Amino acid sequence: MNDLITWLQHPGLAHYLIISGLLFSLGTYAILTRRNAIMVLMGIELVLNAANINFVAFSRYVANSLDGQIVAVFVIILAAAEAAIALAIILNIYQNFNTVNVDELNKLRD
Questions:
Q1: What is residue 110's predicted lDDT score, i.e. its pLDDT?
Q2: What DSSP string describes 47-65?
């Protein structure tokens, strides 16, 4: 019992990888099952945040450098740009078709 308490009190690489795996799984689930385009974008953000946790954890516990944090900052910048552009596209789609349901957007092919 004391080993479990010690393991939980001192987070290591395994803790961060478990959290990252859970976030990645939730993001993938949101991408694959949601019909609303906003929810799909939120799933993509979860996947990108899971990658950021991996970058930072591996740079802290394996490489002991700042490389992971630098890459995570670039991923955050990329995610912000992606969110701004995607929301602009979604607003334009809603204005033209009055829906953000990705299943009903087959009219875009015409």
A1: 54
A2: HHHHHHHHHHHHIIIII-S
